[in-house]
Design brief:
The protein is an alpha/beta fold. It has one domain: Rossmann fold, CATH 3.40.50. Helices cover about 30% and strands about 30% of the residues. The radius of gyration is 16 Å and the shape is globular. It starts with a helix and ends in a 13-residue tail after the last helix. The relative contact order is 0.20. GO terms for molecular function: magnesium ion binding; orotate phosphoribosyltransferase activity. It holds the Pfam family Pribosyltran. Its cofactor is Mg(2+).
Length: about 190
């Protein structure tokens, strides 16, 4: 898929939002990628995640995992495309962990996926959970990298769409200074 084709899907589904947003990282931005609006469409989910999976097809991946919430559908669809298990990690007492009977065997090659990254914090937390389980993090895949490739996760990282989106510390946010309230559209409470 070309970048233009991917952008067209995000635009068609209304997933590229403008306004004043408080991101999961705690930073503020005037743009937000609401991947749930794309992922609600099974055909688009399959198409995008198949493209992401293809980038790791020869890497011997045996498990795909993503953080709840944003990574659940991505994990499932990428795993399906690769023909492997798809898991998700979730927070328990504030720590990303494997629950619900999910496990990773020592030495399994694991691909960590997410819908959007800004700082990579959630992906790093899942990577730590994988390592604690004895798995080997073989790579990371995301639908959207808001950092335009600036985030270094320490493993090969593939993004379907990279975008340089300005974000601000809350104390430096021009929208806050104008009194414009921030919206928190994501799933994680901060």
């Amino acid at each position: 898929m070309t970048r233009d084709e991917i952008v067209a899907i995000f635009q068609k589904t209304g997933a590229m939002l403008s306004g004043h947003f408080r991101l999961t990282s705690g930073r503020h931005s005037n743009r937000y990628f609401q991947c749930a609006l794309v992922l609600q469409h099974p055909d688009y989910s399959e198409l995008l995640c198949r493209e992401l999976a293809a980038r790791f097809a020869g890497d011997g991946i045996s498990v795909v995992i993503g953080p709840a919430m944003g990574g659940i559908i991505v994990s499932y669809e990428v795993a399906r495309a690769l023909g492997v298990r798809g898991l998700f990690a979730e927070r328990e007492n504030g720590v990303m962990t494997l629950r619900r009977g999910f496990s990773i065997e020592p030495g399994e090659r694991v691909l960590v996926v997410e819908d959007v990254i800004t700082t990579g914090g959630s992906v790093r937390e899942v990577m730590e959970a994988v390592r604690k389980s004895g798995g080997t993090v073989a790579g990371a895949g995301v639908l959207v990298d808001r950092s335009n490739g600036a985030v270094d996760l320490g493993v090969r990282t593939e993004a379907l769409l990279t975008a340089e989106v300005v974000s601000y510390a809350p104390e430096d946010c021009p929208f806050c200074k104008q009194g414009i309230p921030a919206v928190k559209p994501g799933s994680r409470k901060i």
